[in-house]
Specification:
The chain is α/β, with parallel strands linked by helices and 429 residues long. It is 39% helix and 10% strand. The structure holds iron/sulfur cluster (SF4). Belongs to the [NiFe]/[NiFeSe] hydrogenase small subunit family.
């Protein structure tokens, strides 16, 4: 087996997957533009599914993925770059997708001064001349033949930090670079997985969903009008935030380290589309608000400028925060009353004594008991259920006892009626 075959075939990986579908094997070419490599770190931390599961074909129906990643590859130099060159020349002889991390710089700006911004490998200029191969040019060369182009992270999706105000490199997202008419060889526009960095599971899950579709074993995943996986990005952070209950009750943290809602410290969660609070950062752990941080809108196309300066309350907070405070000032005391009731056993209510060795708990007084009585009345109105009404309980129990004895009698009767039939059957037998 030649060196190249070792790189391209990956024959030693175990086969657990169902091999149905037209595409059996997909090369995944990772390219890095104006990037900090954070998206690579996020991807290798993914757990559901993990990169290992993808490359070892442990997901039924998923084609075998041969990953070419400059940081993860065992090969180096020309041996590592060769599959890229083959794909550029149309000589790979296999399906491939492009995964682009970081924003795409305007390499013409760099070329004008004789340099480059982001490059990988060498571009053969003929006559024995070579130059560093800008990843922007490589993206341009690989995109038309790719089954899919996936922008990994906010920089690749929208431009991100390198494209912020003062953008001297002319950085932009993959979508801007390839244009709105771009379609992959299999007809897909650019898929965007934003986040700075994205949740690792968002990266691997989207790649899996797209490849399942391309392999003909899954439906086309739903994307929104900006090419984001809709099932991950159609809800705001706020809707899945563990602190949303505090927001609803108008209780806001005044400093970090407190458990309440962080909107007054500059959280943009109510408007930002992201699933970090629900999914966590890594293996369902961590993730911005879950660990005490605010949302600074890193998944959004306007990031970072639209959300800067960070750590300053959004202007809309004045209206929504005041409304929450007003509603919360009514809701909180009412909830306290119901909570108090939920914290009592029937026995404690009867004995008016809570025998806790952990501290003194006041038994409900006359006023509280009266409130609870009417509360319970409203709660059980329109139903026969009334747990604290013993007469009602007795009636319900009597009713259920009579229903049971009726059922027993009916089944006894059926058994007697069935007897002659079975005796006849025995005789015939
Ligand atoms: Fe919403 Fe942010 Fe408050 Fe969470 S911390 S409830 S996302 S405003």
């Amino acid at each position: 087996m030649s060196d190249n075959e070792t790189v391209l075939s990956n024959e030693h990986t175990p086969l657990f997957a169902n091999e149905s579908g037209p595409i059996k094997e997909v090369h995944a070419f990772w390219l890095a533009g104006m990037s900090c490599d954070g998206c690579s770190i996020a991807a290798v931390g993914a757990k559901n599914p993990s990169v290992e599961q993808l490359i070892h074909q442990q997901i039924p129906g998923l084609p075998k993925i041969i990953l070419h990643h400059p940081v993860l590859a065992v090969e180096a130099g020309h041996r590592f770059m060769e599959p890229y060159y083959k794909a550029v020349k149309g000589e790979l002889g296999a399906t491939y997708v492009v995964l682009y991390e970081g924003s795409v710089a305007d390499e013409q700006i760099a070329k004008d001064t004789g340099g480059y911004f982001s490059a990988m490998g060498m571009d053969d200029l003929g006559d024995g001349k070579w130059r560093p191969y800008p990843t922007a040019d490589m993206l341009d060369d690989l995109a038309p033949g790719a089954a899919a182009v996936i922008a990994v992270g906010t920089c690749a999706s929208w431009g991100g930090v390198p494209a912020a105000v003062g953008n001297v490199t002319g950085s932009m997202g993959v979508m801007d670079f390839l244009g709105e008419d771009y379609r992959s060889a299999l007809g897909l526009p650019v898929v965007n997985i934003p986040g700075c960095s994205p949740i690792g599971d968002n990266i691997t899950e989207t790649i899996t969903a797209v490849l399942m579709f391309l392999a003909g074993v899954g439906p086309l995943p739903e994307f929104d009008e900006l090419g984001r996986p809709a099932w991950m990005f159609n809800e705001t952070v706020h809707r899945g935030c563990p602190r949303a209950g505090f927001y609803e009750e108008g209780v806001f943290a005044e400093e970090y380290g407190k458990p309440e809602c962080l909107v007054e410290l500059g959280c943009w969660g109510p408007v930002v589309q992201c699933n970090i609070a629900r999914r966590g950062a890594l293996g369902h752990n961590g993730g911005c608000m879950n660990v005490g941080g605010i949302c600074i809108g890193c998944t959004m196309p306007g990031f970072p400028d639209a959300f800067a300066p960070f750590y300053k309350a959004p202007p809309g907070k004045f209206i929504s925060g005041t409304a929450s405070r007003m509603v919360g000032s009514f809701i909180r005391p009412l909830r306290k009353i119901s909570q108090r009731k939920g914290n009592m056993t029937n026995r404690w209510l009867k004995t008016e004594h809570i025998p806790s060795g952990w501290g003194h708990v006041e038994a409900p007084g006359v006023v509280m008991k009266t409130i609870h009585y009417f509360y319970k009345k409203i709660q059980s109105s329109g139903t026969p259920y009334h747990p604290s009404g013993s007469n009602q309980q007795r009636k319900l129990q009597a009713k259920s006892r009579s229903a049971m004895s009726d059922a027993i009698q009916r089944s006894g009767k059926r058994a007697i009626e069935a007897e002659p039939v079975s005796s006849t059957a025995k005789e015939l037998g």
